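Give me the fold.
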Amino acid sequence: MGVKEKIAKAKKTNWVAEGISKSEVKSTIELAKISAKIEMARLEKGMTQIEFAEYMGVTQGMVSKWESREYNFTIKSLNEICEKLDLELSVCLNETSIKNEYEVIPWKKEVTKKKNPLWFKGIYGKEDIA
């Protein structure tokens, strides 16, 4: 029996994740996917970690952290990496049971500074509505 057949016939278990929260397991899986994608992009370019680090404008140690799942990416860092690698970052937030517990308030364009107490100066110095 080959490896693929053994994997296909393997009994499912959750002992590996016992005592670990679902969010921790999901975070680990997502981080592994991101790290693998970065490493595959580097390998497709035929670059060593040192060459790739120079291309990305970071140190070889940083590339090593990205690829070994030791780096906790921010949305900003992921967007910068994706831009350099010509990848698209797509975040998918699916609806959950929380939807049933909270009322969704639709956005109204006619909200003005006088009517909205949450009016503030935006990050670019222009006035925005919160």
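The beta strands are 119-121, 127-129.
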